[in-house]
Amino acid sequence: MRKTSLSLLFLLGISLNTDAQQKKNERPNVIIINMDDMGYGDTEPYGMTGIPTPNFNRAATEGMRLTHFNTAQAVCSPSRAALLTGCYPNRLSLAHALSPEAKTALSNSEETIASLLKKEGYKTAMLGKWHLGSKAPFLPTYFGFDSFYGIPYSHDMWPVGYDGKPLDSSTYRGRYPRLPIISGEKVVAYNDNLEDQGKLTGTFTKKAVEFITDHQQEPFFLYLAQPMPHVPLAASKAFKGKSELGVFGDVIMELDWSVGEIMKTLDRYKLSENTILIITSDNGPWLNFGDHAGSTGGFREGKGTAWDGGTRVPCLIRWPGKIAAGSVNSQLMVNTDLLPTIVALTKAKLPVHKIDGMDFSALLTGKTAKGPREVFYYYYDVNNLKAVRYKNWKLVFPHSSRAYSGSLPGKGGYPGPAPDVKVKKALYNLSHDPGEQYDVQENYPEIVKQIEGFAEEARADLGDDLTNRKGANRRPAGKVN
Q1: Which fold has domain 26-373?
Q2: Would you say 146 and 115 are in contact if contact means Cβ atoms under 8 Å apart?
Q3: Over the stretch 39-95, which tens digit does the pLDDT of each residue have?
Q4: Nearest alpha carbon to residue 217 among 345, 118, 122
Q5: Which of 16, 27, 161, 165 is at a distance of 20 to 30 A from 66, taking alpha carbons?
Q6: CA distance 198 to 217
Q7: Is the pTM of this model over 0.85?
Q8: Alpha carbon 12 to chain centroid distance?
Q9: Which residues are catalytic?
Q10: End-to-end alpha-carbon separation of the chain, Å?
C-alpha cells in the first residue's frame, strides 16, 4: 500500500508539473525592443550597406519582416504613448517630445501593455528611455511595470553641447538639468558626458539579460527602449571604430549586439519558442544630423514630419513555431496595433477605454493573409490631421511641415537647418510612388473624395486644428505639478 501511495503521489506530482508547464506555455513571454530614431533603412534586412547587422538579420530570418509598419506620430513621446496604450496620442492629448519641465504626461487613467499583462500574472520591467512623464506619479512603475531602470526623457535633454562639453545657462539647452538615471522612482546616478552616454546600450542590455534570467520560470513582459541611435551618438569602448560608417555605424553595431544578447539569453533558457520578440523604432531618422543620422530607405523626409520617412519604421516580429520564419508582410500596420495583438496572443483583456489599435494576431500566425487595417491617420503638431492613408493611397492636406531635403545636413554630430515649408494638397499612390513625389489627385478624384470621408470621421472623433475641429472623444493628459 505504501508503495502504491508513493507511486500515486509521484504521478500526481508529474501531472501537476505538466499542468503548470502547459499553463506557462499558454502565456507567451513578450519582449519589445524599441529603438530611438532608427530609420527604416538602418539595418541589413531593410537595405543598409556598410554596417553588418547579423542579429537583426537573424531576427528577420527567424521571424516576420514588416514593410508597411508605421509609428502613430514621428516623435518620441507621442509614439511611445501610442505603442504602450494602443491609442492615437492625440486621443490622449499628448503632443511633442516632453521636456524635463513639461506640465503634461501620460494620464494615470490610461492602461498600458504592462498593466494589462500584470493583471494576468506577468512580471513586467521597463529599461531605457521612458519619456512619458519625468517624475512621480508618471514614471513607469505607475503604469504596470514592476521595475524601471533608465532615463526619464531623451538623452539630448541635458546641459551638454554637440561637442560634448558643458553648456552655461545662457542657452536654453544649458538650462536643462543633469540627465538622471532612475531606478524605480529614485535617482541613482547621472549621465554627464559622452563617455557616460556610451555605456547606456550595454547597461540596459545587461539588465535585460538579468531580468530574463531571474524570471525564466514565469511569464514576463520586458520593454527595452534603447536611447540610440538618437543623437548624441556614443558607443562603448568595445565598439568604437568597429564600423565603416563612423560613430553612427558603431552605434548600430552595438545595438545589433544587444539584440543578439537578448536572443542568446532566450536560447540559453529554452525560452525562444515561448517568447514573442518585437524589434521596432519610435520614428524615422533626424536627417539634419547628416552622418550622425540614419536612413529612411528612400522614403520622403524624416523624423518630425507626416511623410513616410518619419512614420515608416522597421518592425521585426519573431515567435518560432508560431510566426513563419523568413516571412515578409506588406500589410498596413501601426504601432497602436501592438497592444491589441499582444492582448490576443497572451489571452489578456483589452483596456476599458476606447483604443485605436487593431488585432493582427491572425495575420502574424498565418491564419489570414489580410490585415484588419485599411486606414491610418497622420496627425502631428498638437492635433493637425496632415494626411490620411487608405490602403496604398495617401492623401496629404495643406499644412506646414519641417523639411530636410532643401538644406545641406550637418556633420560630425552638429545639425544642419530644417526649416518649415508650406505643403499643398496632394494624392500619392504608395504602390508606384513610395517616395511621395507625384501628385495624382487629378487622375483619381473618386479616391480623393473617399479619403476625405475618412478624414471627416477622424475630425469628428479626434478633432483637427487645421480645420478648427475639436473632436468628441479626446481624453485629458496627466497634469504635472
Answers
A1: Alkaline Phosphatase, subunit A (3.40.720)
A2: no
A3: 999 999 999 999 999 999 999 999 999 999 999 999 999 999 999 999 999 999 999
A4: 122
A5: 27
A6: 32
A7: yes
A8: 45
A9: 76, 131
A10: 71
